[in-house]
Structure formats: structure tokens, C-alpha cells
Amino acid sequence: MSDYVLETRDLVKHFPLTQGIVFKKQIGAVRAVDGVNLQLRRGETLGVVGESGCGKSTLARMLVGLETPTSGDLFVQGRNMAKVGAEERRRGRRNIQLVMQDPYTSLNPRMTVGDIIGEPFEVHPDVVPKGQRRRKVQELLELVGLNPEHINRYPHQFSGGQRQRIGIARALALNPEIILCDEPVSALDVSIQAQVINLLEKLQNELGLSYIFIAHDLSVVRHIADRVAVMYLGKIVEIGTEDEIYETPTHPYTQALLSAVPVPDPTLRGQRDQIVLTGDVPSPANPPSGCRFRTRCWKAQDICAEQEPLLEVRDKSGHPSACHFAEVRDVVHATE
Amino acid sequence: MSTDVNVKLDALPGLDPNALPLEVKNLQVEFRTRNGIAHAVNGVSFDVRAGETRAILGESGCGKSVTAQAIMGILDSPPGFITGGEILYRGVDLLKLPEAQRRKVRANRIAMIFQDALSALNPVFTVGFQLAELFRKHRGMSRQDAKARAVELLDLVKIPAAKQRVNDYPHQFSGGMRQRVMIAMALALDPEVLIADEPTTALDVTVQAQIMALLAELQQERNMALVLITHDMGVVADVADRISVMYAGRVIEEAGVNDIYASPAHPYTKGLLESIPRLDLKGQELSAIKGLPPALTNIPPGCAFNPRCRYAQDVCRQNPGPPLYQVTPSRTSACHFWREVKGDE
Lengths: 336, 345
Fold this sequence. Notes:
The complex is a heterodimer. By secondary structure, chain A is an alpha/beta fold.
């Protein structure tokens, strides 16, 4: 267990749906995350992909302690975060920091950059002594490629890419071991995106960080991740190394997702095995019985409605997949 | 079905049925703001033929959406002003038409799909009402007939149970379904030109695939000219015939889709293509374009891309900026060093 810097066991988050104003009664629950098991090794990047509403952001919020899990356990460096005292939990949080999606709303417009990056030191005063905080903030700015003299500027004086660097500097302030990136580049333009991805990779090498990288852009995840988990409606449907997921996907949803990504190569037009799914993602308040993907799956049979497929290794591909009929299908033609 | 309107449109002065459905020539748009004049579009030219897909590719702030708004005549003015150029629909300069005639062209002949369907649809009217409104205002149909046409349209864009859903409000639809409603609305009056401004950017990839397939099918059926405005190099590679790449309000490269991806002739296009994560470069550093796009109030002299360009020399910093060089008969590039960029694989 101590091999992992972070581990979740059957992590569940249900948001109650209530009716009535005075006498509230629960009429159901949105099953945002419904039993997720993840392990993160030291120095590794775990990519989490899935479409909007699949629970990836709720998962991120639970991992950093912004949401309390409905049930299940979260271990950070071997300690069960639900069972430790308030003081230890506060200290534990130091090790896992979040980089948020939207650099335009996640920085307080009324605070200077120095105050934003230095704020973690007020919550955790013992990390850096008071007199040296300003210098530490300037070091952080330099580390993420910003001019340390800009410490007194406000967020609106920076561009989107620079703001995301400020968000990264803030996440690094407490010397964490794990950084959780929740769609860190999806709000940025392509040319800026590459700069931020390069920065994240550089920081990982220099500081030995472990990343959980949540994104819907599959090519970005492929570039940065060592292992990838695919989520659908609150559950992990397939998990494996980057090669296993992209080269030999076995779950129909993973295959459809990969085939739907447009490839920036016009010579492949019409030659790719494109799977166009019908319909939309069902509501997580009322997920289908059995396999949650069966309503959109072309392989679905009676057993899929009756029995929920477990996330386990079924075929020779050698990685776990939650499908009764898991089999390898080559959907991404290698472009040499 | 649309004969009565076509009669009126035939009366447009100088209408030439054999001319291209849309041709933009040297369009210039500026925004007069408190912080100075922002030159959003600085001489953009492109055309699109019937049945063809023209992609306009560029990052945020490059002027691609402003170009679309100028074509549709929905530019916020003030602060936006069209200061020069022509927008030709079958030979008729739309910028010279009185508003009443312009309005007949809009939606009838040239229609537009917006990026964010939730904010483009009116939340307080049902989807059916908003669709039927088009037929009532532009075709003079009765409420009942117009409603029947609205149901047909929802069927056309493959919305299940169209007959019931026609009475739903926009918030009752999912993101993909709302975008389908937008497409239905744009196609309602059978336009010849469809401008799609980032039609799938707000959608998930599996839904994006559905919407792009639907658009391609409808375009082929109607032999429609499609102007696809996007920043997604993958989508462009999948559907476009010809591409105009924009940077700081100018078209800096224009070519057929295969040429651009095989051998870009402008350093910006090349940089964009290289900054996409690729399979064979896994584990290596991505080649990013350094720096930031310029502020439109303060575009650098000469070539607007020169501060970020690895090919830049003194000539690039001098006004006037590079002209559009003819790379081959069918493609152009606004770079003094297009030979080096193109040859240097």
C-alpha cells in the first residue's frame, strides 16, 4: 500500500435530490462518482478522461478535500484521510494541490499575484517563515516562467496562459507531492497549451511530482500520461497504461471516444474506423441498470441490463475493462 | 416553396446567379474603444463555392468571429465599424444594400450557427415557437403551418420524438440537441451559404462527431456552401476543402487542406501544427510557439507574427507587411520566407 502516494477505495459521492422547502425529503441522488478505485504511484502521471458529467471533476474535488465522500476511503501516503484528526488532515492536504480549469475565474481579481501565491502560507504558516515569504513567491514565479518583478500585478494584467502559470505557482507553494490538474489547458489556445504542458512536464522532472491529469482532450492526455483511466457516468470503465488504452482499447466506450477524436491529418479522412454513438449520456440521477453504457452500446445484450460488468482483466489485452464483451479493436491508426 | 422570396431577391441590383455564393474582398473592421482603435480585421479575403467547405482557422482574438458577424450584418456598431472592403453574395455587395433588403438575405440566403446554443436561443420561448417564427416572418405562413414545418425541421436534424419536443424550452435539451436545434434554425429557409462559428467547441467529442456528421450530410444534400470557423486542427482536417489561416486580423495562409497539413508555408501555421501532441513525439517536449498573440490595438509593424517567429529577419519588421505571395496557383502565404518555411521539413 505504501507504494502508492494516493489511493482510493470504492470512493462514492452522491448529491441528494430533495423535494419540498420546509419538510425536505430526499427523492433521489445524483450518483456523480459511484465506486472509484484508483492508485497513483510516486512520480507517475495518471490521466483521467471522460465526457462532461462523467464525474471527473467531482472526483478531483474529493481527492483534494473540497467534497466529503459519501462513502469509501481515500488514502494519501498511506493515511486514511477520513480517519485522521482535523489537524492531521489539514497537514495532509498540503501534499495534494489543485490546478483549476479556468484561469479567469480561479484567481481573485482583487488580490495581487503575490497575495494569491502567498495565501497558502497563511493557512500553513510553518512551511515558510514569515520574513522569507515574499522571496519564496518570487522564486515560484521564476520557476513557472514568469517575471518575479510582476509580483504586485493583478490577474487581469496577465494573459490566459500566464494566469494558468500563476495557478500552477500557487499549487506548488506548499511543496506538494501530488498535483491534481483539472482540465488545466482546455481554456487555452493551442499555441499556449503546448507551453503550459511543457511547463508541467518540466516541473514533474525537476520536483519529482505525481500528477493526476483530468482532461477531455485525449491527445493531450496521451502525451502527458503514463496510465489512463476512462470514466463514464461515475465509474471507471477501463484503466491501463497509455499504450494499452490507446493501442488496444477493449471497452466499447473507450473505442467510441477514441474514434470520435478528429485526427489532424487530412489524408486519413474517410479511412478511419469511426464509431458515431447515438444519443446522449443518460442522467446520473437515474443511471441504466447493469452496464451504464448499454443504452448507447452497439454490443449490448440482455446480460448487460441484468448484470453489472466488473472492472477486471477479461482477455489477452492484459488490462482491466468493465465490459462483458471486452475485445481489442484498433481504432487509432498509427500515423508513422 | 421559397419562390416568393426568390422573386424578391432576384430584384437585388446586380444579382448574378452564376457568381460565387459568397466572396469577401479586403474586409476591414475596427472597434473604436476607450483604449484606442482595435484593428480586428485587416483586409480579409476569401470565397466559397457551392457544396464546398471553407475553414477559417485561428486562435481567439484573431478576428474570425468578427468576420462572420460582418458577413451576417450583426456586428455591434458602435463600437464595431466596417471601414472597407466588400462582401459579395452572388455578385451583390451586401454592405451597400439598405437594411430591409439585407434582412431578406440574412437567414434566407446566408445563415449562421453560433458556438453557444444555450445563449443563442431565447430561453423564454419554446423551440418550436422560435423555429416557426422564421416561417411566419420570412414566408408569411400561418401559425399552424409554421409549427408543422418546425416539426419537420426537428425531424430533419434527427431529434427523436420531434412532435413532442417542439413544445420544449431550450433548457430542456442537452447540449448536442440544442446545437441540432440551432442547425435546424439555420437551415429553415434553405440558405445557400451556412456560416458555422465554432459549432462543436462547447460539445464533447462523441457529440461533436454526431454534429459534424449531420452537418456534412445536410451540406451534401443541399449543395450548400459552408464556412467553418474553428480553432480545432482536427475538425478542419476531417471536413474542410480549403483553409484560410488567420492571425491578428489577416489571412496569413490560404491553401487546400492536404497542402496545408503536408507542407505549411507560413511559420504560424507550421507552429500550430507542431504544437499538437503527436504520437511519435511522446515523451518529448512539445514545440510551442513562444510568446503571445499581439493586442489588436497595438499590432507590431511589418508582419504581425514577427516577434514570435523563428524565421524573422529585419525585413519582417518593416512596413508594409509581407504581401500574399503566390506559392502555387492555388495557394498563398503572407511570409517573405515561405520558401524556407515550406522547404524546411
